[in-house]
Design goal:
4 helices; 0% strand
Length: 101
């Protein structure tokens, strides 16, 4: 499995982080992606790329949904009262002895 991960990582580098071309090259070979300037017109390769993208998107949607549910159940942060001023950051000053005369 580590070899496959390393190979896919190298393909992502080769295709400038284009996951569609990297997946197509992983399945059909980089020479076919170059030949067709993208995903080759092979049923198997197109189905493979579609399945991986579909599964990835489904997992992302589930994560976002779970995150939204978690955020909805978390109480909102308390805001500071309007009359309280935040302290200003201190400014650097040049000592008088360092200034030109």
């Amino acid at each position: 499995m580590e070899a496959g991960t390393a190979h896919l990582s190298a393909l992502l580098d080769q295709y400038h982080n284009d996951p569609i071309k990297a997946l197509a090259a992983y399945n059909a070979g980089a020479h076919r992606v170059k030949q067709y300037n993208g995903v080759p017109p092979y049923r198997e390769t197109r189905a493979y790329v579609s399945k991986i993208v579909r599964d990835f998107n489904a997992k992302k949607r589930a994560q976002m949904k779970a995150g939204a549910a978690t955020n909805a159940s978390t109480p909102a942060k308390a805001t500071s009262p309007k009359g309280v001023k935040k302290p200003k950051p201190q400014q650097a000053s040049v000592p008088k002895s360092a200034s030109p005369a």
